[in-house]
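2024-03-11 09:14:02 DEBUG pipeline.ingest accepted 1 chain
2024-03-11 09:14:02 DEBUG pipeline.ingest length=328
2024-03-11 09:14:03 DEBUG pipeline.predict start
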Amino acid sequence: MIDVSRRHLLAGAAAAALVPAVPMRPARAAVPPAGKQVPGIYRQKLGDFELTQLTDGAARRPVSNGYVVNISKEEAVAETEKLHYPKDQVVVPFNPLLINTGSKLVLIDTGVGAGMYEKSKGAVGQLQTNLAAAGIDRNAIDIVILSHFHGDHINGIRLGDGSLAFPNAELKVPGVEWDFWMSDANADKVSGYNKGAWGVPRGVFKDLAGKVTKYEAGKEVAPGITAIHTPGHTPGHMSFAVQSGSARALVQSDVTNIPQFFMQHPDWHVEYDVDPAMAVQTRRKFYDMAVTEKTMVIGFHFSFPAAGYVEKDGTGYRLVPIVWNPGI
């Protein structure tokens, strides 16, 4: 057994002081700090499918200005300290998912958009960079599936110059979601964050109305990928069951925002939910299914590589992240 005590440390320090000083040699070359992360790419197999998780970056925000709308700001701030986050701060990741089914390249959600890359100094809008780093030509993507119409999921449809980021892809959108956000009659049904974001889908989808394909829950939207209606976050919000042979995963989109807050406390209301009460019902139903099935869950706002297994934890749930595998 190694016994290290304060007395030993002090004795060692005293002895070191008696050793003649040795002239320090200057470093042969100064290495400047990189100042940025390496590309965020993680691949894993699901049956015969290959899943590539691609980070689009992350945004930091305070919790004391209404991030959780049904608890006090003091409670929210205390939670950040409990989780060893910077006080009053959370980091919200963005993680689109690419699925190679063997016959199709399918992208689920597109991130905040390449146009935000320079503005955020590279913190967000990384999808195109990471696609290239993963060896994926954006022109080779066959299908883009959108889960819902919040900007961090749809803005990446376009590049910074306004052109289409995936010009050869079929663009699939939830029919319920399209009908809600594209109707002026629904403008008074949203408030807060969603009131401010009301016009975003119209800006993104301008001149694309005739080019989108609407899909419904319960239907296959791409080979092995079936839509699941998970409303509350938005009226037409969709998650997905991905199946290859006997292997299955659930793509939860925004059933919850960061799991450290809203999976652990499923009754908390994040400011982005259009119908918070419905979102709570959906959250519990979805995670009860994941727990029962012991199915891997992939989350857009999970910490990279954005996948894990859900377990019951008291009155809530907790995410057990997947084990990083150096192979595929």
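2024-03-11 09:14:41 DEBUG pipeline.report Residues 29 and 168 are 47 Å apart (CA to CA).
2024-03-11 09:14:41 DEBUG pipeline.predict end
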